[in-house]
Structure formats: C-alpha cells, structure tokens
Amino acid sequence: LERLSQRRTDPVTGERYHTMFRPAPTPEIQARLRQNPKDQAENIERRVEVYSRNVKLLEGFYQDAFYVNADQDPHAIFEFIESCIIHPLPRKK
To answer: What whole-number percentage of the chain has pLDDT above 70?
Structure first.
C-alpha cells in the first residue's frame, strides 16, 4: 500500500517519482506532482481485495501451480522455476 500510494507523476515531463524512495529533486517539481486516482489508498485496497478473492479461485483451478517468492535475486527465482519444471514436487492425491 505504501509503495503504490506514494507514487507521483510530473505532468510536464512525464517523469515518475515516489515521495519516500525517489522524491522530486526540486520544490518546483514537487509542487506540480500529481497522483493517479488508481494510486489512492482506497482504490489500492479494493484491488488487493479483488486480487485475494480471485487468487483463491485460481489456486483451485490450477492445482499443478507452484508458489514463487519473487522477493529474491532474479537468478534464484529462475533456478527455482527451472527446478519445478525439471523436477516437479510429488502431487497430493
């Protein structure tokens, strides 16, 4: 929620900023930044709720799918996916 709700765009240059992680370099730019309506907290919360509801349905449909923790080094993610394809885990019956 914090990452998405703090995004801003400069309408003059189209450059994107984040109020915490990549703030605008000057007060002039900071004053003209705009937030996309989809990045408002209530809209993000609604999207997360819809995502959570749909993910449960998809997990039932795609029973052979596996969970990937994407918060890692890209090479570790690739190796994990590759190992799941080449040496899949035994299925529950």
So the answer is: 95
| CATH code reported for the domain at 1-85 | 3.40.50.300
pTM (2 decimals)? 0.58
Does 90 score more than 70 pLDDT? Answer: no
DSSP-assigned states of every residue in 5-70: HTEEE-TTT--EEETTTB--SSHHHHHH-B--GGGSHHHHHHHHHHHHHHHHHHHHH-TT------
| Cα 19 to Cα 1, 25, 89, distances in angstroms | 13, 11, 43
Distances 15 to 25, 58, 66, 82 between C-alpha atoms, Å: 11, 36, 36, 36
CA distances from 53 to 4, 58, 76, 82 (A): 20, 9, 29, 28
